[in-house]
Amino acid sequence: MKNRLLSSAAALVIALAALTVTATLACTASPPSPTPVQPEVVEPTPADTYEALMKRARELRTSGRPLEAEKIYDGILAKNANDSDALTGRGFCRLTDRARGSQALADFEKVISLAPDYVDAYVGKAIVHRRRTDRAAARETLEACRAALGDDEEKQRYLAESCWREGHFVLARTLDRNYPPRPERKLIDLPNEIYVTVTQDWVRHRSGWQSQGVTYVRRFRPDLTWWISETRYRRNRDDDLETGTGVSYRPTYALTLSYELYLANRADFLSDQKHRLKADILVLPNTVLGAGADLNGYGSDWATTGRLELTRYFRSCYGKYTLLTGKDANDENVSTSILEFGCDKELNYGFRVGYATGNESVETGSANVFSEDRIDTAFASLRYCVDPTWGFILGASYEWRDHDPYRTGASLTLFKRF
């Protein structure tokens, strides 16, 4: 009995010792480390990413909002002053304000120093020189770009496209010969145009004159345009049909050559053939001199008229003087002077107004007529683009002969680009 009590006491002492050691270890052990809290990662919103900002700036610039685009480019350049894409984009924004040409030039030159093969920077620099009427410097800039690109065929092709669009036709043709363009290249977004025209003239003491015509125009390249037309005329109850075609070619930026041919039925009132040749030469900055001849055949008889034109451009507006002088089919002297003014916003609207005086009537949508009377004509037209693909042209004219009212004309043209 005594032995059992001793054994139980010993077991109790061992158990108490074990509990004491366990408690001591528990009290002296370090508390468990808490699970670390990860910092919250803030992802940039899509509108804040570099790619999104550049895309937005480009959209603003190409949609006619350059000042807003420039602010975005400024923000990008504040973080990286050597960003070539942002510098180039900002340079083109500044190009929209002619007074900031020097600032745009500084951007383009910096890009060229950073990336000597950046084609758009050279193109922008060439535009600055062209606007300063220094086409020689513009050409040298693009030639420098050509040299900097070396044998990089894709960039040379891209430079060729830029040369076509900026009117550097000689260099563009050279690049096309050396680096043949891809079949899918598209220099003109909407190269085809169709015009449908109707005219009505109310002639004093006579039956009215009418015409209906359709013209198709094809722009193969910025330097080459071809067209074909067919027009039916009705005058004093007589009808005549005239078919025409013509071509315009620009060997260089400063020279345009054109030729027009019209054929009609000699048995009726129109001349059986007309030939019109003209050369336009850029003689001074924004000033074009045109010279040519109008040759109208009536069987064995010819009306030969020389043409001299002087056109002065003021940005999107122009003033033009034309002198026509020569002999008609009866060998009588004819002469007409025409003064014209107009504005042309290519994808928006355009208008022209003019006045002519002489003894040859002005063509304002009706067939040409020679007369010994003094003829004075006032004319005007308005072109409006509903969108870049189609629009209309309204025309009006009023004619006096020997100071007496003779003819009132109106015309409507619908056109479609595709």
Structural commentary:
The structure is a single chain. By secondary structure, the protein is of the alpha+beta class. It has two domains: 46-178, Tetratricopeptide repeat domain (Serine Threonine Protein Phosphatase 5, Tetratricopeptide repeat); 192-417, Porin, CATH 2.40.160. The protein is 32% helix and 43% strand. The chain has nine helices and 14 strands. The protein has helices at 2-28, 50-62, 66-79, 84-95, 101-114, 119-131, 135-149, 153-166, 169-178, and strands at residues 192-203, 209-221, 224-235, 238-252, 255-264, 273-284, 287-298, 301-314, 317-327, 333-345, 349-360, 370-387, 390-401, 404-417. A 14-stranded antiparallel beta barrel has the order 1-2-3-4-5-6-7-8-9-10-11-12-13-14. A hairpin with a 2-residue loop joins strand 12 and strand 13 (390-401). The longest helix has 27 residues, at 2-28. It starts with a helix and ends with a strand.
Q: Count up the helices.
A: 9
**CATH uppermost class of the largest domain:** Mainly Beta
Shape: elongated
Radius of gyration, whole Å: 39 Å
Strand tally is 14
Q: Given the helix and strand composition, which structural class is it?
A: alpha+beta
Number of domains: 2
The CATH architecture of the largest domain is Beta Barrel
Into which percent range does the helicity of residues fall? Answer: 25-40%
Beginning-to-end CA distance, first to last residue: 120 Å
Uncertain stretches: 1-34, 36-44, 363-370
Give the mean pLDDT.
87
Instruction: Give the strand order of the largest sheet, numbering strands 1, 2, ... along the chain.
Output: 1-2-3-4-5-6-7-8-9-10-11-12-13-14
Could you name the CATH topology of the largest domain? Porin
CATH superfamily of the largest domain: monomeric porin ompg
Order of helices and strands: HHHHHHHHHEEEEEEEEEEEEEE
DSSP strand content: 35-45%
Largest sheet: 14 strands, antiparallel, barrel
